[in-house]
């Protein structure tokens, strides 16, 4: 034996260790393993480090003790996303020679952890069957919390467009069994049941879904646990980034009011009521109950395919129906999905992101017999785009076109992008310095290069400055220059003025802008051209009747 560290020793050669181990009688070997496992735990070691010895020495100890440590080790494996290890540990504990002697609730605990691992590995059928067995054991023993955990694990995975009666039944049993006091567990059960009931089998199910969602959300806020409205399973917090940010702002505001109330209770009560009134006013005037319905379901983690589209249940007039058809053909490519803020047609995204040259100007494909065409940059997974609306404010700022915000002096920027945060290696300056026909930086007519391609930046016009770099200020990626998030459109008729910088006053102006400058430019939409609505105007993507129909639908949306 050779000294190692502290009071530890090691064998001088591994073969000596293996020879001595092989010569041990089975009973002595099991005793040493069990002693090693228990010593590991006493010394502050983790269950994962001890469980191997306890399994090997199971005959020298009690099955319940081995199974308890295996259960803790399996939970630790799930926490570090080692799902296979968790399943293996739980199954091995359930297959101990004396497993039939394990306490009923311990068997149920092991079945739940194995089930969760199986479901997360994709074997949902076996995992759900094991959850159901564990739930039955827990219910028979009156273990309401374990019953609730089994139901939540069963509901870890959703099948789009279908309802699972057994999932719904388990969640209802668990909800009836747990205490009605505020708790994360009860909030999760209500949120999960609301998701399981979606899409509603009938119109009559809608009120129950909404009531469950509202009470789950309110309870999560009361106990200061926004993650409680997740879908169940391990740390699967399903609230969106926007919802988490909203909750965080609300919490910080409440904290500030509470600090004020400690010094001046009357002022604290007044501020609390004032904030509630402001929130109620904003929801009533600027939002939409349908938008909140969708947002709540998405915040609970219900997959988008399972969220019902509220407009499908609306009674629309004939003109509104025509307007919805126009919306689907002209708007849903970018304002699609159940949340109306998803880019549904990826070709449109790629079309709006041109490839840039090192000098910041757009790279064009120049071929004989056809106009120069911008080379497009594919942006998989991106849900924002540069639709060119920054040009409205830019032209207004240099006096070339009117806009609703032209009385405001906007800041004027040019940005230098670097390789990384050290700012040692410059990549590109945007917008690139204008090269125009007249030489004036404010001339909207671009000069052409030796190949006949226009010399323009990302917005496809000569641009002396930008008033807003868009997403590039967040990502640092030149490709995101003047690109913006896609807003959801429910309640849009109540939120003037429009665009990210309030450059258009009315919704009709927005529809006209799209019809004249955007829809026909977006070739992937393949919309037919219509004659100009005004003499001498541009061809339009929508006819006057289509614009009227679309306006009528947007007023309802």
What would you say this structure looks like, in words?
- About 3% of the residues have low confidence.
- This protein is 48% helix and 4% strand.
- The chain is globular.
- The chain is built from 20 helices and eight strands.
- A two-stranded antiparallel sheet has the order 1-2.
- The longest helix is centred in the middle third of the chain and has 23 residues.
- It is mainly α.
Number of strands: 8
Largest sheet: 2 strands, antiparallel
Mean pLDDT across all residues, rounded?
83
Please give the count of helices.
Answer: 20
| Global Rg | 32 Å
Please identify the structural class as seen in this structure: mainly alpha
Unreliable stretches: 230-243
Strand order of the largest sheet: 1-2
Please outline what is shown here.
This protein is mainly alpha-helical and 557 residues long.
Question: What is the element layout, followed by pairings?
Answer:
Blueprint: E1 2-3, E2 9-10, H1 14-23, H2 26-42, H3 47-56, H4 63-79, H5 83-94, H6 104-120, H7 124-140, H8 144-154, H9 165-177, H10 184-196, H11 206-222, H12 241-263, H13 265-286, H14 289-299, H15 318-330, H16 346-351, E3 364-365, E4 373-374, E5 384-385, H17 390-397, E6 415-418, E7 426-430, H18 472-475, E8 484-485, H19 507-518, H20 544-556
Antiparallel strand pairs: 1-2, 3-4, 5-8, 6-7
Helix pairs in contact: 2-3, 3-4, 4-5, 4-6, 5-6, 6-7, 6-8, 7-8, 8-9, 8-10, 9-10, 10-11, 12-13, 15-20
Labels describing this entry:
single chain; mainly alpha; two-stranded antiparallel ribbon; 20 helices; 8 strands; 48% helix
